[in-house]
Amino acid sequence: MMTIVVFEDEHVPRLYPVTLGRPSYAISCGAFRLLDWLKLLGLPIHGIVRPHLAGIQRQDYSDLGSGPFGDSKSILFVNARLVPSRTVFQTLQEVLASDQSGVVMYDGEIAAILFARNAGVLGATPTTAQLPEYFVKAGVAQLNPLNYKLPLIQYPHDIVRYNMQILSENLEYRLSIGSYHEVADGVFLGANARLGQYVVTDTTSGPVILESNAVTGPFCYLNGPAYIGHGAKLIEHAAVKDAVSIGHTTKIGGEVEASVIEPYTNKQHHGFLGHSYLGSWINLGAGTCNSDLKNTYGTVNVDHQGEKIATGMQFVGCTIGDYSKSAINTSIFTGKSIGVCSMLYGFVTTNVPSYVNYARLFGQVTELPPEVMIATQQRMFRRRKVEQRPCDIQLLHDMYELSRDERQLAGDPLSL
Fold it and tell me: For FRET with 263, which of 34, 118, 202, 284 sits at 20 to 30 Å CA-CA?
């Protein structure tokens, strides 16, 4: 019996704030998560995640095993940071079909390991901290290199980069396996999805898909490739263009370009969002805009966890972590990162740590205690008829502790 083990490696914190509150295999990119593709392989899947996400995995990804897997006949270890593309899915199929033990590397990091016939795999299930030693004892260094290309998401801006690259091919695959009704050239609707009056579509560069119960208001503009998730709502006059992937149960207005928006996030009002990644349960106030282009038109360098990273991209917007909010007319500068559970006011000219009220325009950056976010979460969940569970509350406490260093190293004195 073949088993898949999707694992988070030691580089997952490099993707903060994206992965602070979600397993890496649950990052949306190109209208898919890696987990969605792994399930299509039709094999049992085990998940190895960071300890603070173990409860979330048990509750929200209950079809993933977390117990022993060492008695499986063959095991394919898959890095949870793999790009969730159709090409990667097909490559994993080829790796499985090869039935040849070996390791696939990407830029010096393990992308996948196949132990055919369970050669050298230990019995006990490791934690994320134990994985490096586990792989040493399992003899990974002695395995033959497998000549396959399996790219990894290495920094948050890579999500935007890959989303633009893979969205069209991913949507074509969705159309091949799903049930949709084509209402115009390249425009496909799931069950009970609706287009408002006077909607203009352009599918020259890729299809537009509205999943079941998704709706648009009148006078919207949809430029493919674009994906509108289940139950999402596009407000009247919304413009969605150039590789946008919108998760389920969202409300989107204004102009959105080349961005990924996770489920339960609201951007209802006018304002520009471009080349950006938004986590879940975010609310952007009316008039919130971000910049995604330097005035010099050069490629963007981002400050990330104390490093200056050359993205090689001309357009880079913002990365916003789960549960963060912006006030009306907030302006976010090019390439900025906003942590989880933060409140933004005015001009965002620097990266924003998690759990802060950020109002540098008024000379204030103050810490937000987790109790405030727990109460806020309860109100938000109630509005969407979502139950607040003990694991959700615990996650807010855990994210607060894990992001403590961010607030100490942010460069702004906190008024506590």
Answer: 202
Q: What is the DSSP letter of 52?
A: G
At 323-344, the pLDDT tens digits run 999 999 999 999 999 999 999 9
Q: What is the pLDDT of residues 115-162, one digit of tens each?
A: 987 655 666 788 899 999 999 988 899 999 999 999 999 999 999 999
Report how far residue 304's alpha carbon sits from residue 101's, in angstroms, rounded to the nearest whole number: 36
CA atoms within 13 A on the CB side of 214: 24
Domains of the chain: 2-142 (3.90.550)
C-alpha span between 378 and 382 (Å, rounded): 6
Structure tokens at 390: 């003990």
Give Cα 201 distance to the centre of its chain: 26
SS3 79: strand
| Torsion sign over Cα 245, 265, 331, 215 | positive
Give 278's Cβ-side CA count (13 Å radius).
33
Judged on CB neighbours under 10 Å (0-12, 13-18, 19+), 185 is: exposed
pTM of the model: 0.95
More confident residue, 67 or 64: 64
Q: To which residue do tokens 């010096």 refer? A: 108
Give 318-348 as a DSSP string.
-EE-TT-EE-TT-EE-TT-EE-TT-EE-SEE
Contact (Cβ atoms closer than 8 angstroms) between residue 304 and residue 156: yes
User: Of 307, 313, 296, which Cα lies nearest the Cα of 337?
Assistant: 307
Q: Rounded distance, CA 272 to CA 369, Å?
A: 30
Rounded to whole angstroms, how far apart are CA atoms 358 and 379?
A: 22
